[in-house]
Design goal:
- It is a single chain.
- By secondary structure, this protein is an alpha/beta fold.
- It has a single domain, classed as Ribonuclease Z/Hydroxyacylglutathione hydrolase-like (Metallo-beta-lactamase, Chain A), CATH 3.60.15.10.
- It has a nine-stranded mixed beta sheet with strand order 6-5-4-3-2-1-15-16-17, with helices on one face. It has an eight-stranded mixed beta sheet with strand order 8-7-9-10-11-12-13-14, with helices on one face.
- Strand 5, helix 5 and strand 6 form a beta-alpha-beta unit.
- It starts with 10 loop residues before the first helix and ends with a strand.
Length: 353
Amino acid sequence: MQNVPATVPGASLCYDFAMRSVRAVILVLLLAAALPAAKKSVEMYFIDVEGGQATLVVAPSGECMLIDAGWPGYNGRDAGRIVAAAKAAGVKKIDYLLVTHYHTDHVGGVPELAAKMPVRTYVDHGPSFETGKNADILVNAYLAHRAKGQHLEVKPGDSVPIKGLAVKIVASAGDLIAAPLPGAGAPNPLCAAFQPKAEDKTENGRSIGMILSYGKFRLANLADLTWNKEHELACPNHKLGAVSVYMVSHHGMNLSGPAAMVHALHPLVAVMNNGARKGGSAEAWQIVRQSPGLKDIWQLHYAIAGGKENNAPDTFIANTDETCEGKWIRLSAREDGSFTLFNSRNKFQRSYP
């Protein structure tokens, strides 16, 4: 009888290799467990639509909200810029498209965008307060696309149900929240110096305004809400409380942004979605700049009328030339309240505690 080896040749080597592989995997898992977990963040892209608004918000859950869609025309310029920012954010559809009000620089770009990206839910303040041929054409073009998706009409006190992010509506259709938000409501000593402006009866004064919160981080976006309406939110008691970031109202026009509101928000950073020749007025810029505790102003454009003394340093401006490539600014905010802003033009970024 032929003797059979006790072991198959090479079996020992295979066994040793397998055990070493198992130990290596275990070691990697142990090291990974020892490392701190990666911080989740909410990402916001402030997209240049030449003085309109298009702000893409991506929650840690992956759901996203686009606030306004810029202008129509210009060979699909604004829709293209939104799609490019969405691609950078890894977004393939819009879960919520929130239209703050029915002006061309905010809602005009909806049809061109909807032709490029699917939109699940349209959010607005209900019927338009402006009439006439041009106003009707603008709104009807929006309504034709809204009819293809879901619709959510919001009122002050409502929330947009985006997963992983709190979006509280504080103004809509000319109405404002009646009671202060949690933690707000302190008397505002800045109200004594307030000077009202002429009553605004346009869609601007009907803008949807909101506070976006993620943990300790808070951002105020009041769209084009105008001077007297913002005063009502701020006086005699400030209903919104302090925020981390203030998105400058109405592109930095002096029709909005009274000191009684801006300074009471006590922002650490302001972001201005102005154009080269729209918004960024010297008066509005100085009110923001003088806000107590403000560290920096970031701008989508250099405001030509403002001059060097009424513009942020070039480092903080996404587009320094009037003819530009539509560079964006990205904000990454964490639950502990810390956040980072990034300028896509020069790759400059700054973090804030």
